[in-house]
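Re: your question from the hallway

Yes, I did run it. Sequences:
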Amino acid sequence: MAAVRTENGRVVAVVGATGAVGTVLLEVLAKRGFPVGELRPLASERSVGQRVQFGGRSWDVELATPEAFDDVDFVFFAATGALSKQLAPEAARRGAVVIDKSSTWRMDPSVPLVVPEVNADALEKNGGIIACPNCTTIPLVMVLEALRREAGLRSAVVTTLQAVSGAGQPGIDELDAQLAATAGGAPAGAPKVFPMAIAHNVLPLCETFRDDGYSTEEMKLLDETRKILDMPELAISMTCVRVPVRVGHSASVLVETERPLSAEAARAALARFPGIEVRDDPARNLFPTALDAAGSDDVLVGRVRRDLGSDRIWLWEVSDNLRKGAATNAVQIAERLL
Amino acid sequence: MAAVRTENGRVVAVVGATGAVGTVLLEVLAKRGFPVGELRPLASERSVGQRVQFGGRSWDVELATPEAFDDVDFVFFAATGALSKQLAPEAARRGAVVIDKSSTWRMDPSVPLVVPEVNADALEKNGGIIACPNCTTIPLVMVLEALRREAGLRSAVVTTLQAVSGAGQPGIDELDAQLAATAGGAPAGAPKVFPMAIAHNVLPLCETFRDDGYSTEEMKLLDETRKILDMPELAISMTCVRVPVRVGHSASVLVETERPLSAEAARAALARFPGIEVRDDPARNLFPTALDAAGSDDVLVGRVRRDLGSDRIWLWEVSDNLRKGAATNAVQIAERLL
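Structure:
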């Protein structure tokens, strides 16, 4: 296990500090009081020269090079997979603990893939790089683990409804531009980030298609869930959908447990689980939505009910894809390592 | 069976002619060349005095009273359930064929509930009132029937993503008003049609909750599908979700057939089925979206693929909730009766 070298005031590098996740990461580090002694905001050439605000002062964004990781304690990679592939081993070799938000290292058997509430023990065997799961995987494994601890776990059917910020700031900008154009009656314009117009539309594709007709996003949900839960044969059936929402991923989830579970018992198990907040009272029209999740570090769960034709449990989960789905989970990993 | 009394140039009444579905109904009657000799646009007192355009002329909207149905051949009810409950029997008693879009008569055992491509034979035993299914039921039973004819049918898991026009013109107006307010940075304002803000949000509730935590919309999907397919025990597991889309209901559907089916065979069975158009080529990023369905009379289907952990088939279906989900299906019923 890579050592954390100073007792207080860690040297923290953030690669991709000016992007959608990087910006939130700085907010989360500040809000949670992470002991940052020195901040090194790093980026590719395009963003060098910008400045970011943190801890009451302004920091220059510098070029992400191997030497930039000298004497660094923690590195958060919130950038492209290419940058992570090239530089994460360089940072680890210099003694830093790398927490990577890209998909580059997630399925590497030697790299722990961690949601602290679920499998913090996997952190013990790290070689300097720790992977943070995809934004849809994190809330899913939390609800599945909560139910598994109560009644075992057999399978799940999942349909996700994912915010445009899953594609970063360009995704938000594209939705906003299309909404502005169509509000005035103009056409949405040629899409760049998404394959078709996302304003007033839903797209049954996140990321790109593989040859077998599944999207790379869907396969992440399957592969990462199996790795984190250490259930290599777990049956996850999934469709991932993009919706015209700025922030907040939602999912409808149908869970088959090993032992039948009442809705009340499922709700209680979810409410007990750290990092999950249950908001579920149909009589008062209470259920969580993407807007409720935006800005929250928790996974919000509602609509917990028994399936009408089987012993399965339906639920609805929402989370902030930039926070618990990304930045918050990464910072929580670093907190565990302190 | 109620007789259709004239050979050509039918007298056609439309109750709710100025609403979202009523407006589209007039368009569909015209586009499909339905033989309308005389149009009687009817409405509750609130809309009396308005005029609608049809067949190159303007028609006065008159009050929907029992006497307004004298000498009428076909009545389309595209209004509230209360109006339908009160007036549909009056119209039928006067010899008109009533095609009702409300939920009032759908589960009445003496009333056929019809999607012409699926169960047109149910029209033979009508007592003057024929019910048109809910907008989410129609596309679902079409894809299920297409697969049933090929390989039998066991169960389905469905998550719908429904447009705001499912709540009529007020639903569209509320989304547009919230988008306009939030684009300028203002709050969305207090919602009236939906329980929470729908702009930049998704709500896991369509219509209202029952005591058991299921929504009335979800129960319609179950009950109506069972009736139309004449499978009273069919297992349908469902979550119905509202999305910030003006027109076009989408659904992700996982279907268990009696005999295993390859994706190719499922795709071919769907493509053969009348009223279904398959748009499915991941290699070319081809899949149908809500915007594609808007204005179409067909159910569009894509993302047909085998589940990775079972013999089930995943698919994605979209349809125009005001057309095939409402007006088109109603007009198709009338065409069958001609």
